[in-house]
Amino acid sequence: MTSAGTAQRIEADTAAIDLIGLATHMAPPAAIDAPRLARELYGLDGESTPLHGERNANYLIRGSKQGLILKVAGALEDLGGVRLQIAALEHLAAIDPTLPVPRVIRARDGRATVEVDGRTVFAVSALPGRSMEAIDFGLDHLRALGVLVARLDRALRGFFHPWMPPKLAWDLRNAPVLAKAVSLIESPDVREAVAAVYDRFIGETLPRYGGLRSQFIHNDVNYPNVLVTEGEPATIAGIVDFGDMTHGPLIADLAVPCADNACSGLDALDAVTAFVEGYTRVQPLEEEELAPLHDAILARLATGFTVVAWRKRHDPAGVAQLAAYEKSGWSVLETLLGHGRDTVIAALGRAARRAIVVPATRPDMVARPVPAKAELIARRARVLGRHLSLSYDDPVHIVRGDGAWLWDADGRRYVDAYNNVPQVGHAHPRVVAAIARQAATLNTNTRYLHETVLEYAERLTATMGEGLEACIFVNSGSEANDVAWRMAQVWTGGRGGIVMANAYHGITEAVAGLSPYEVAANQVAPHVRTLAAPDAFRGVTGDDGKAAIASLVKAGLGPAMLMIDTGFTSNGIPDVPKGYLAGLAETVRAAGGLFVADEVQFGCARPGTHFWGYQHHGARPDIVTMGKPIADGHPLGVVVTRRDILDRFFEATGFFSTFGGNPVSAAAGLATLEVLQNERLQDNALTTGEAFRRGIRGLMNRHPAIGDVRGAGLLIGVEIVQPGTRTPDKLMTDRVKNRMREQGVLIGTEGVHGNILKIRPPLAFRAEHAAIALDALDRAFAGD
Ligand code: PMP
Fold first, then answer.
1. How far is the CA of 511 from the centre of ligand 1 (A)?
2. Among 600, 626, 760, which residue has the most ligand 1 atoms within 8 Å of its CB, making it the best to mutate?
3. Shortest CA distance to 612 belongs to which of 477, 713, 680, 535?
4. Which long-range contacts (CB under 8 A, 24 or more apart) does 5-8 make?
5. In 3-state terms, what secondary structure has residue 238?
6. Which of 389, 505, 562, 570 has most ligand 1 atoms within 8 Å of its beta carbon, as the pocket-test mutant?
7. Disulfide-capable partner of 672 in 146, 475, 632, 658 (CB 3.0 to 4.6 Å)?
8. What is the predicted pLDDT for the residue at 366?
9. From the alpha carbon of 565, which atom of ligand 1 is closest?
């Protein structure tokens, strides 16, 4: 080592003396007879397991009743710290009783703390679950953790206690002391990065740190202190260990989990923004907290590296607990530094603003009586009619959704692999916020000037090409198809319609006439002709439309239009030969009819390869209709066509829709489009859809009932047959659907014979959801 290097080391070691008491891993007090104390003090007979603790010795006592954690304060632990913890936990129990944090358990004689051989003993309830370290957590977990930490912080808002903890290395206010020991960090890259982080933090952030919104905070929400449920999929179940509580800036309670929990293999920026989004759903951040939050996340990581370096030299026993910092802390720091301060702060701001604030204690988090399912079914039949169908043998009573997840009234969670109405995910905060903001500002009929609907129309048509640039807004897919049908008749003078056999296009009288799915095949309206759909599985190429056109001409009707669901959904999601739809459309056009692409099912990024189904097929429509997915669950329908067709239609009809394209619907549509683009959900449809189909094909050997796996993007059809044949097996299809539901995955069935499993999830459905669904599918076929 050079003499300059030696001098630096000596200085660091000298500075490190200041760190004794800050960074030392304090050995917990000597072992005690925990089972005896549990029995004598708390009346709990049970086995004792020692748990990790730096300043307390902790023992889990499992008895026949709910277990408890016996805590014995260490030699260095001030009794004040114990009193602070107890007071805080009792405050939380009173303010937010549903918060999943430990409860103080008093001794049989009512005391919260007991002196035993000169040491202070106290007990808290053992929460069910396992540490978050035990699972491969994803962004949904971090969002949920954000919600929970925010609830905790809100509940702590009114809490005060006169005791202040001793100085801890992890308190970022001690950064100037830690910065002196940075030269102990061995890796030059890490050392240089940490020094730069501390320079900025100490020079610019710390002087303003004391002026930030402050209160008592947990101060140590990292994954060993976060519990998840035992079952699969695991969900966030609680926060434990209040031993590091302090009074300080609120953002420290975000910085800790953002820095530590990003060490998880997830992209660090995605992880951090997911947590902040969850947090701000419950508790908004102030604008001036965003930059300090960014700096504090980096400073927390810098502290991790410095404490590890210090302990390696002075306290080797304390290094093990911090192994994560060396393993993945660097990748987090490098990723965040790589994005740059401005980019990360802007992303934090977007995440914070994207979140729609909900009350800290949401109505569905408070226990309330759930009506019996049988009672609801009977009520529904009474007021909605007994023929209105309900999915599954054991119907689900869904009360809440988030992304690709749904929860039932009993709190059970389901992967939603069925619903395309919430196209970008259930209750997407950005769409919800757009609806709420506009509803709180203005909603009117559509005879006034309003910019949102214009911006939406421009951005929507920009995805389409083919001269498709003029829109009519309505409120449903059925209405859109009804308008398209009228338009085609006005433009062509024809009166005949051509659709696929078993097609479904909606509920108005005209459109029901175009929907053989709704009626027996030979009872479609007299002016409608149907085409046999392609069925590659059975070697059927599909009707070329010539006979249907000839029949309409012969009947004196003439073809007004060909209307096709571009996903061929109710035909069982067949793999349609390349060029089939384009050829059919040209044949009809040559005979004077228009081609209407019904994108209600398949459009809006679901095909993965393209944004619209007609683009996926390489076909050129004259009219495109859209419905359910385009506003993420808000009722909206759109007809898009060429300007000349639109003009002629208005001249002939004087059409006007009161609600179609109202400001709230337009805001919902625009936000959905933005989310589709910002979150690159078309790419997700492609990659997740393809991987999922591959996974299902991988099950075919084991489960010969799977005859064919097909579809595109996130529209997937799985044909169920009697093994070794092409004979549809509806019974097995229904059985698999119901078993999937029992296992917490929702799918549907489809096709003329009802033997196609229909998998058509929100586009927020990602690899983690597909893995759960695939596993459930495997077990559903096995009959487990
Ligand atoms: N077209 C297709 C292809 C559909 O699947 C549906 C509804 N499932 C509709 C039109 C009708 O849409 P809505 O129910 O919004 O009226």
1. 10
2. 600
3. 713
4. 8/183
5. strand
6. 505
7. 632
8. 41
9. 3
- Phi then psi dihedrals of residue 142, to 5 deg: -70, -35
Per-residue pLDDT tens over the stretch 603-612: 999 999 999 9
Which residue is it, tokens 């951040």?
285
772 closest CA partner among 744, 742, 731, 749: 744
| Any atom of ligand 1 within 6 Å of the Cβ of 505 | yes
Q: Which amino acid is at 321?
A: Q
DSSP 423-448: TT-BT-HHHHHHHHHHHTT----SSS
Cα Rg for the chain, rounded, in angstroms?
A: 31
| Atom of ligand 1 minimally distant from the CA of 476 | 15
Mean pLDDT, residues 302-310: 91
**753 within 8 A of 730, measured Cβ to Cβ:** yes
The pTM of the whole model exceeds 0.70: no
Rounded CA gap, 161 and 79, in Å?
Answer: 13
Burial of 248 (0-12, 13-18, 19+ CB in 10 A): buried
SS3 156: helix
The Å distance, Cα 476 to ligand 1 centre, comes to: 8
- 53-112 confidence digits (pLDDT tens): 666 788 898 876 678 999 888 655 568 889 999 999 999 999 888 899 999 999 999 999
- With contact defined as beta carbons under 8 Å apart, do 541 and 534 qualify? yes
Query: Six-digit token pair at 338?
Result: 């790589």
Contact (CB, 8 A) for 120 and 82: yes
**Centroid of ligand 1 to alpha carbon of 54 (angstroms):** 60
Indicate if ligand 1 lies below 6 Å from the C-beta of 476. Answer: yes
Q: Find all residues with CB under 8 Å of 721, minimum gap 6, and list them.
A: 705, 707, 708, 727, 728, 729, 755
Q: Rounded to the nearest whole angstrom, what is the distance from the C-alpha of residue 161 to the centroid of ligand 1?
A: 60
Distance CA 320, CA 190 (A): 19
> 215 and 153 in contact (C-beta within 8 Å)?
yes
Q: Which atom of ligand 1 is nearest to the CA of 479?
A: 16
Q: Are 43 and 58 in contact (CB under 8 A)?
A: no
